[in-house]
Specification:
The protein is built from 12 helices and 7 strands. The chain is an alpha/beta fold. The protein folds into 3 domains: 105 residues, Nucleotidyltransferase, domain 5 (2-Layer Sandwich), CATH 3.30.420; 63 residues; 112 residues, no CATH class. The strands form 2 sheets. The chain has a 5-stranded mixed sheet.
């Protein structure tokens, strides 16, 4: 049995693909309904849910806690699958049916869900990112605000954001101190010149596969693997795309610092420039090199040593 669940704020649209045919159902998105649903999904081979900006988290956490094979997929991938089938219309009911069919035909791989502690850490990291964006937006408004009342209002908001950011940083530090494994991994990541506490926290929270999977896999997961664009005799430029944007952004800032203060990374960057590579291309290569170093450090449990860096 393959199940597709389209999630909205107040309701769940379900499609069940069984040997006897396709069944549809609509449920209220409530805790009691979810607990009853768990008992009915024990025979499911795949339960496919789209990432919907957070609405799916309660559903996924409930199903994963019950040991059910739930998979969260990229909405763009499912939409492309629907177009390939010629299903251009889009409703909640159609989306649920397509998700169920996607699970049956594609069999998306099951991934281990985030532990409750790591999910809490990831939520704090995401919240800090939101607050930083809000602070930058207010700072930009302050530059063009000339009325005293408006400037005073922005100053109040900025002060509140600074206080909340400081409180959030303390909460993040407390989360890391509470887990000995995280504390050790945090120390190992920060041993690399160019990698600071923010980058290390993002990697711990949003890249739990670091040190656990293959080198090529982790590069593809982050979105730092150059992808081919060839057709016949035409050879397109290799580009990176997809992957985990927040992790890639953190590595970008770490690489910017690393090409200045990390001797080995700076030498690698300069070699690429000497070969005629564009600065942006060289910097992306440095991000990839840095990621592989970090991957090896977490995997081996050994801190950064320039003489042993690959």
């Amino acid at each position: 049995m393959f199940v597709g669940i389209d999630v909205s704020k107040d309701q769940l649209e379900l499609a069940w693909r069984t040997p006897s045919g396709l069944k549809r159902e609509r449920l209220a998105y409530q805790e009691a309904e979810l607990q009853a649903l768990v008992a009915r999904l024990q025979a499911a081979q795949r339960i496919v849910v789209e990432a919907t900006g957070g609405y799916e988290r309660l559903l996924v956490a409930t199903l994963a806690a019950a040991g059910l094979p739930v998979v969260v997929v990229n909405p763009r991938q499912v939409r492309d699958f629907a177009r390939a089938l010629g299903r251009l219309a889009k409703t909640d009911r159609i989306d649920a049916e397509v998700l169920a069919l996607f699970g049956e035909r594609i069999r998306p791989p099951l991934r281990r869900p985030l532990e409750a502690e790591r999910a809490a850490l990831a939520a704090l990291v995401a919240r800090r990112r939101q607050l930083l964006e809000m602070r930058q937006a207010e700072r930009n408004r302050l530059q063009t605000a000339y009325e005293a009342a408006v400037r005073a209002s922005i100053a109040v908001v900025l002060q509140a954001l600074e206080q909340e950011l400081a409180r959030l940083e303390q909460e993040l530090e407390a989360q890391l101190r509470a887990c000995g494994v995280w504390q050790e991994q945090f120390r190992l990541l920060c041993s690399v010149p160019g990698v600071g506490p923010v980058t290390a926290q993002v990697l711990l929270a949003e890249l739990p596969e670091l040190g656990r999977i293959g080198r090529r896999q982790v590069v593809k997961l982050v979105g730092l693997a150059p992808l081919n664009r060839d057709s016949g005799r035409w050879r397109g430029r290799r580009r990176i795309w997809g992957g985990r944007g927040s992790v890639r952004a953190a590595l970008y800032m770490a690489a910017l610092v690393g090409v200045r203060y990390n001797r080995r990374l700076r030498a690698f960057y300069q070699r690429l420039l000497a070969r005629g590579k564009a600065k942006k291309v060289a910097l992306v290569a440095c991000m990839r090199k840095l990621l592989l170093w970090l991957h090896a450090i977490v995997k081996t449990g050994r801190p950064w040593q320039e003489a042993l860096a690959c």
